[in-house]
Every structure is written in structure tokens, then in C-alpha cells.
Specification:
Layout lengths: L11 E6 L5 E5 L5 E2 L6 H10 L6 H7 L7 H13 L17 H10 L11 H14 L12 H14 L6 E3 L5 E3 L1 E2 H12 L6 H11 L1 H4 L5 H8 L4 E5 L3 E5 L5 E6 L4 H14 L8 H4 E6 L2 E7 L4
Antiparallel strand pairs: 1-2, 1-9, 3-6, 4-5, 7-8, 8-9, 10-11
Helix pairs in contact: 1-5, 1-6, 1-8, 2-5, 2-8, 3-5, 6-7
Length: about 300
């Protein structure tokens, strides 16, 4: 909305599932098949722990992250690699600048070159390499869909989602990305949140709750959601994807069809309100300002109610 006029509209799908995985409520088509992108990282992290990845919570949070590239993120990724006897050269992430705009601008001002470790998925990749080391698997081809690591992840994600993987693609970081329904994405996080104490899923969600800044960053909406909502586990994904889960096992997922970032944020807040949360907990993300001449003249808001 700009000065009371509807300037643009984003459409999408959203779903809420009960702790048993049944759909409680849906907008659009809960069976729509999507690439979850980075929203599947908690499930991927659970698969790696199941396969023998053993990291302290502050590092395991990086396994499930799309980090902002702040120095504490890079230091943690380097620690994961060092623990596996590797360094940044082993990463097969694209050369990139930090995702966080403040960090990115700082790098550019300093004339720093893009690095593999600065790419937002480097925590996941470092953990993939560490998992390979723990199992004696090859590391030069760890991104190949036929690699034992990727096969373990594929089987684990299908089990969590309660449905077969319908399509395999290549994510922006170069790792396989596995298609599933929006409801399947919500079910996968619901099952991880409800995992028994000491299990891989419980370790992953405990790490994410304990270290939300490592999952996203100091200025990221996904980190703010987890800070503001007690017990929440949340993960954003490229192309307008979000998945959230509460301590009781209820979970929600959404996909903005045009991949809009601004729509993803406000729809994510609206989804949490629809799940019964007090609107005040997510007030900062419920609406985003539209500026005109440097001052607010409108807002981005979600029609999801």
C-alpha cells in the first residue's frame, strides 16, 4: 500500500500442521510442491547428526544456518573445518561476499575479495565435509547427489516430510535441493521439534534456539523471530520460503510464488499470529514500511488471517 493505494500484490501458499502432521489450516494449496531451499537446513542438519556429525551447540547452529557473514560466523565455520582437519579450500561453495548488507558494504570498502567461507551456506558445507570425515567418505565429490552423504540426507528428509522426494535440483550453494510439498516441509520441522531428548533432531533444534544469531545474523528477521518467540524454531529460505515450529509440535510453512523477500517476512509474521501467537510478539515484522521521499507513506502487510 502506498498512500492508501494498492501498488503491488504477492500471492503464495501457506499451511499449518498439527503435531501429528495433519493439516489444520491452509491458504492456497498445501500440496503444492516446492524447492524448500535453505528452509530444509534443519532437516539436513538432523540427517548429518544422525550420520555421526558431532559438534557443540554453538557450531551445530551453523550447520542449520544461512549465516550473514559476520566475523563470528566465519570463525565458527573455520572451527568446524579445522575439527575435520580441513580448511576453507575444501569448501565447494561459490565465492561470495557476506549476505548481511552492513558486512557486505564493509568488505567492499576494504577491497576484500569474495570468499567461499563468506557464502551464507558455508556452515552447512563445512558440516557436510565434517560428516564425510566422520564416516570415511570421499570429500572431493561431497555435493554429488549419488554421494553417500547426499543419499543419507535424501532418505532422512523423505522420512521427516512423510512423502517421497519428487525432484532433485541444484541449490544456489551447489548442494542438492530436494523438492517436497509445503505441508511436507512443515511436517519435517514438526517432527524435528518433537524429537526425543538426545536425538539428532533434538540436538539441532536445541542449537538453533540457543544460538539464533548463528542461524541468521544480528540484523536478520529469522533471528528476530526466534529471539522474540520463546521456544520457536524458524528457518528462512530463498525464493520466498519460510518454515516455523512451536514447542508443542505445531508447525507452519509458506511459499511466496514470486520469491519476494518483503512478502516472506510479513507473511511469516502473519502465519505465526494465525498459529495463535500474540501479535505483539511479532509486531516488528507484521508490517514493513513503504517510503516516499525518505518518510513512511505506506506499508507492506499480509492478507493471511
Amino acid at each position: 500500500m502506498r498512500n492508501g493505494f494498492v501498488e503491488g500484490t504477492h500471492v503464495g501458499h501457506a499451511v499449518i500442521v498439527a503435531p501429528d502432521g495433519q493439516v489444520e489450516r491452509a491458504w492456497g494449496e498445501p500440496g503444492a510442491v516446492i524447492f524448500p531451499r535453505s528452509s530444509s537446513k534443519p532437516a539436513q542438519a538432523s540427517a548429518m547428526v544422525h550420520a555421526g556429525l558431532d559438534l557443540p551447540l554453538e557450531l551445530l547452529a551453523l550447520t542449520a544456518s544461512s549465516h550473514s557473514g559476520e566475523q563470528f560466523h566465519l570463525d565458527a565455520v573455520a572451527r568446524i573445518l579445522a575439527g575435520a582437519g580441513l580448511d576453507e579450500d575444501a569448501l565447494q561453495t561459490p565465492l561470495d561476499l557476506p549476505l548481511d548488507p552492513v558486512e557486505r558494504e564493509s568488505w567492499i570498502r576494504q577491497g576484500r575479495a569474495p570468499r567461499s567461507i563468506a557464502m551464507n551456506c558455508s556452515g552447512k558445507h563445512a558440516s557436510m565435509l565434517a560428516t564425510c570425515r566422520a564416516n570415511g567418505w570421499s570429500i572431493h565429490d561431497y555435493l554429488d547427489p549419488s554421494h553417500p552423504l547426499q543419499q543419507v540426507i535424501m532418505v532422512h528428509l523423505a522420512e521427516l516430510a512423510g512423502e517421497p522426494i519428487s525432484h532433485v535440483g541444484v541449490d544456489g550453494c551447489g548442494a542438492p535441493v530436494l523438492a517436497m510439498s509445503i505441508a511436507g516441509l512443515a511436517r519435517s520441522l514438526s517432527r524435528i521439534v518433537q524429537a526425543s531428548i538426545g536425538s539428532p533432531g533434538h540436538r539441532v533444534t536445541s542449537a538453533m534456539r540457543a544460538e539464533p544469531e548463528r542461524v541468521g545474523g544480528s540484523r536478520r528477521d529469522v533471528t528476530a523471530f526466534m529471539r522474540q518467540v520463546p521456544g520457536l524454531v524458524a528457518k528462512d529460505g530463498a525464493e520466498g520460503v519460510y518454515v516455523v515450529a512451536l514447542e508443542d509440535g505445531r508447525a507452519g510453512a509458506l511459499k511466496v510464488c514470486d520469491g519476494s523477500e518483503r512478502a516472506r517476512i510479513v507473511a511469516g509474521a502473519a502465519l505465526l499470529v494465525a498459529m495463535g501467537l500474540d501479535e505483539e510478539l511479532v509486531a516488528e515484522q507484521r508490517e514493513l514500511p513503504i517510503l516516499g521521499g525518505g518518510r513512511p507513506v505506506g506499508r507492506v502487510r499480509s492478507a493471511l488471517t
